[in-house]
Design goal:
Elements: H1 3-79, H2 106-112, E1 123-130, E2 133-141, H3 145-149, H4 162-166, H5 173-189, E3 204-208, H6 210-216, H7 228-232, E4 234-239, E5 242-248, E6 253-258, H8 262-270
Antiparallel strand pairs: 1-2, 2-5, 3-6, 4-5
Helix pairs in contact: 1-5
């Protein structure tokens, strides 16, 4: 092989290498374009999804407005029973209202629910004499809505802006109403002859006249509150946040009193669980 042939061969190899490099470069560019296109597609998809979520959230925000005011309407009914004014320094359930009670911070208001406890002074008993009838009465003044659920500043009675809505910086009146109603119902159950559950009139103690005891009972414990004739002579009424239980006492009962407040106290202890 002469020098001329060697030069030709080298040139051909050089051309082949250039062609390979060119192809590799094209392939790299192709892969780059493919990745950029894929990244763009992902970006567009992600933006589209974000946009859809934003639209969905805005739609939910728009729809929730009517439910907000519907729930607020019911809350205002409970507030009409009585409100806790910032001018007050105490209430039926708080001998001293701390400054924090009137805080407009949502989290502090939420924590207030755990400050409510049973107060014996709001539960009274009496026996009224009406002719020959003796009527045993239990009157129970329950907490007002704000005493139980927390103070409601005026600004929270206005539907929140979208940002506050997204951050849950508003009062969920529907949830508060349900909690307050559950609390009221649990207290009513202790005194409602129509419900007559296992805790009905727990803590009420009485003594039976000896003559009746000899005729009807062997032991004091035999006297059964849920006898139909007893239930028919009992009633429970509610005026705003005040429950009034009345029982036209049968002749056989000599004395009656409310001796144990455990179940009444339990309504407060367990209502948030």
């Amino acid at each position: 092989m002469n020098n001329k042939d060697i030069n030709v061969t080298q040139l051909e190899l050089f051309d082949d290498l250039k062609e390979v490099e060119k192809l590799e470069k094209k392939q790299v560019e192709k892969e780059k374009i493919k990745k950029e296109k894929l990244a763009l597609q992902h970006k567009v998809t992600r933006q589209k999804k974000i946009k859809q979520e934003e639209q969905k959230e805005e739609e939910r925000y728009r729809l929730e407005k009517k439910y907000f005011y519907k729930a607020l309407k019911k809350t205002k009914k409970y507030l009409s029973w009585g409100r806790i004014s910032p001018k007050l320094k105490k209430s039926n359930y708080f001998s001293t209202l701390p400054t924090i009670f009137f805080s407009e911070d949502i989290d502090e208001r939420e924590n207030w629910k755990y400050e409510l406890w049973y107060e014996r002074k709001n539960l009274t008993t009496n026996i009224h004499i009406d002719g020959e009838e003796r009527i045993f009465e239990i009157k129970w003044t329950l907490p007002l809505f704000e005493e139980a659920m927390g103070y409601i500043a005026h600004k929270y009675m206005i539907y929140p802006g979208l940002e506050d809505f997204q951050q849950k910086n508003f009062i969920d009146f529907e949830e508060d109403n349900e909690m307050y109603e559950e609390f009221i119902d649990s207290c009513r159950n202790l005194l409602d002859p129509e419900v007559n559950d296992d805790y009905f009139l727990k803590g009420v103690e009485f003594s039976v006249k000896k003559t009746f005891k000899k005729i009807y009972y062997n032991k004091l414990e035999d006297f059964n509150l849920i006898q139909p004739e007893n239930l028919e002579s009992m009633s429970l009424s509610q005026e705003k946040n005040v429950l009034t239980f009345q029982w036209e006492l049968p002749d056989e009962i000599l004395k009656i009193r409310l001796a144990d407040h455990g179940e009444f106290s339990a309504c407060f202890k367990y209502w948030l669980q």
